[in-house]
Structure formats: C-alpha cells, structure tokens
Design brief:
There is one protein chain. The protein is α+β, with helices and mostly antiparallel strands. It contains three helices and four strands, in the order ααββαββ. The chain has one domain. The strands form two sheets. The chain has a two-stranded antiparallel ribbon. The radius of gyration is 17 Å and the shape is flat. The chain starts with a helix and ends in a 6-residue tail after the last strand.
Amino acid sequence: MTSSNGRSRTKAFSAVLRALVVTAVLALSACTGSGRFSATAVCERLGGDYVGGTCEHHTTPEELAAQQWCETHGGVYVADDGCELGSGGP
C-alpha cells in the first residue's frame, strides 16, 4: 500500500465524516423543542445555498485558484482536501 492510497482513504473518510456530522446536526436540529427547523438556514450558516433539497457549496476564489493550479500541474483537485499529484491510475 502506498502513502498516496493511505492519504486517499483518509481524505475519503474525512469527507464521509463531515457528511455524517452535517446530517447529525440537521437531524438534531429537527428534534429541538422549538418545533422550528430550517435546512436553508443551516446550509447558509455553513456557507452554501439550499437548492432542490441539497446544500450546495460555494467555491471561494482561493479554492478556485488552488484547483486551477493543481490541474495545470497535472493533479486532481479534491475539494476541502487539496491537490492529488502523482496518484497514478488506469
């Protein structure tokens, strides 16, 4: 197993963990005693737009610049995890 595979697995686990945390926050928010729940408000607080039942992430200028740099240098940009260079593939 190479270190790049380990990093890829770690990044995938990190993304899954983030998704679980957001899901838990949304679920627990729905269970509050106030009876009021807004997925739109939660999504906006996380920096996104709630569209069609999905929270869509806004790409920041910094993320866009990082993605462009990565791709021009032969890498694959993975949002929130950075640039994967030389990972190989088919």
